[in-house]
Amino acid sequence: MNTSAGADDPSGRPVLEELDRSQCLALIGPGGVGRVAFDDGEGPTVIPVNYVLDGESVVFRTSLEGRLHHSLATALTGAAVRIAFEVDHIDEHDRVGWSVLLRGGGHHMPDHERPPGASVEPWPGGERPVYIRLTPHEISGRRLRRVGAGA
Predict the structure, then answer these.
(1) What is the DSSP string of 13-47?
(2) pTM exceeds cut of 0.85
(3) Residue 86: its H or E element
(4) What tens digit of pLDDT does each residue of 81-119 get?
(5) Could you tell me the domains of the chain?
(6) Which Gene3D superfamilies does the entry link to (predicted)?
(7) Which of 108, 110, 121, 134 has the highest CB neighbour count under 10 A?
(8) pLDDT, tens digit, for every residue of 64-79?
């Protein structure tokens, strides 16, 4: 774990640390809400999604009418579309928190590829039958924490 400031920073300010791959996966492992970034044909866009972690891959759902589904549907069969996925947790009061970024290829998941027991339950109503898997080629993260505070 690299630290941007020394561990004995006398200023009392939070210290910014780089997180390794396993720390990043542990932080996002419980699932929840993250943001997917992709090019929808009109430029970069970001949308929130509910997700689960399946190994090192992120799985989420979208609607047939969704912009992300249309972006993936225009790709060649079997091809992955470059997307990014970000999850963070910020405590504004204490000015600490963490952020994890995954970048890689996203693709539609056929029924046989869906992980058993990995249920992604979107918060919004309506049908969201399209499952998408992001297989990351890069996982990075940073944590802002107080010196001497626990991980």
Answers:
(1) --EEEEEPHHHHHHHHTT-EEEEEEEE-SSSEEEE
(2) no
(3) strand 81-91
(4) 889 999 999 998 888 999 999 999 988 887 787 766 667
(5) 16-144 (2.30.110.10)
(6) Electron Transport, Fmn-binding Protein, Chain A
(7) 134
(8) 677 776 676 665 556 6
